Amino acid sequence: MHFFDSLWEEANRSFTPWVLLLAAVSFLLAKWVAIDKPRFKAMFFFIAAHLIGLVATAAFESVGSNLVDLLRTPTWILAAAGLVGAGATLLFSVVLPRMRLHAPLIVQDVVVAIAMVGAMLGVLSRAGVNLSGLIATSAVFTAMLGFSLQDVIGNIAGGLALQVDNSIETGDWIKVGDVTGKVVEIRWRHTAVETRNWETVLIPNTVMTKSNVIILGRRRGQSTMLRRWVYFNVDWRFQPGDVIAVVQNAVRGAQLEQVAREPQPNVVLMDMTDTFGKYAVRYWLTDLAVDDPTDSSVRSCVYFALQRADMTLAMPAHALFVTEETTDRKAIKTEKQVARRRQLLTTIDLFAGLSEAERTELARTMKYAPFAKGEVMTRQGADAHWLYLIEDGQACVRVTDGTHDREVAQLKGPCFFGEMSLLTGEPRSATVIADSEVECFRLDKAAVQQVIGARPQVAEQLAKLLADRKVALQVAKEGLTADAARERAAREANALLKRIRSFFALN
Ligand code: CMP
Questions:
Q1: What is the position in ligand 1's atom list of the atom closest to the CA of 384?
Q2: How far apart are CA 88 and CA 93, in angstroms?
Q3: Is the CB of 378 under 6 A from ligand 1?
Q4: pLDDT tens, position by position, 84-94
Q5: Which one of 35, 351, 422, 475 has the lowest number of neighbouring Cβ atoms within 10 Å?
Q6: Residue 208 three-state SS
Q7: How far from 52 is each of 39, 75, 101, CA to CA, in Å?
């Protein structure tokens, strides 16, 4: 027979035109979806091998060689494999994605494997192979193989079960035995878990299906978050109710990254020892990858909140103070602290008009009030008649109109804020949030009252200074002339002075 005739005949026998058509269709369509590269490669390999086999078969047939019979069945098998590959590409890369269905990779592999076995049996039966004999011998072979590969098969079945029932998905944080980490891949044999310590643990799928797997932070119908416990101890000089209120307010008010707003953090007294109460802040962590850094932010917040409230973390009962706290030492310490506060007051223009004695008087009453990063230092609308002097650190000033919240200024120590409520008694006009750890002091109305009461001109100085600052901002914004600015500043100062006088009940 002529070569091309036998090629055509062989191609028809092994359904080559159909294989090529399906492969072309799946290739063209899948290109518009997502190309599944390994499957494409396999399909091309089978089809190319089939075409080579086909040409060889036709060539041997045209010369009347016996090798034809030897080559024909493998060539058919390759065609069947190409057909299954093209069908699988069409199904998994085109049809199912269009129907918004996604079959896990492992399921796709199993379907393809079964289809391959089916196609191979079909081809063998067509080639005249006695399938019942083959199946009988392969059953014994399979039983032997199954017995020796129990573990492997168990792992594969486990992997399949995990994928099919969706109980664990990539991206989940899980705890299996001592291993805690994020699932990055579910393979045939194992599930790969990346830990926070930069390790990848390959957990055999049989272990995954046989042991208790804790999926961290997952609760039906809720977003992912995990409750964390941060412990701290405070001694019995401070009442539990007060400790809980101080710390709970601070942690709830703070805008800490990765700490859920809802449910709100809470503080509980966990245990009682002879010398101190053991407390815990319980908060909900929203990004499970950053547990320790978030715990650390919460701890800072606890520490600063206790400092501001003059509460101290408990010391071990056996701690000894080796330096005797004499009256002299105490006085030196206090003087040092007053000097530090006075120095801060001199760097701030609001207090430039005060005498040295007046600044010292204020410095003696100033209260150390440090803040952790993210803590709300003051909240818009609050009634708070004191002012903060930032010695070191940064904060941002935010204003909300009820719907929109925007940043209006950045503060960097040394500076102050909260003067309006301190001097006029009006509610806070803005919210101020610590952008870093902030070394800060608080100056209360009572102290200012003393100074203004003794020298009422101080009120005038303060009113003038605040009015000048306010108008300076308006000059830049509205392009006021010097005369207009001076006139407006005088008006503002008058109005402000009236409010200060009324708030401080001056004459
Ligand atoms: P008070 O209204 O007492 O409380 C919030 C404080 O934020 C306010 O005083 C000012 O000290 C400060 N503040 C408000 N708006 C601004 C702003 N635009 N620029 C700088 N500081 C501001």
A1: 3
A2: 8
A3: yes
A4: 888 888 888 88
A5: 35
A6: helix
A7: 20, 8, 37
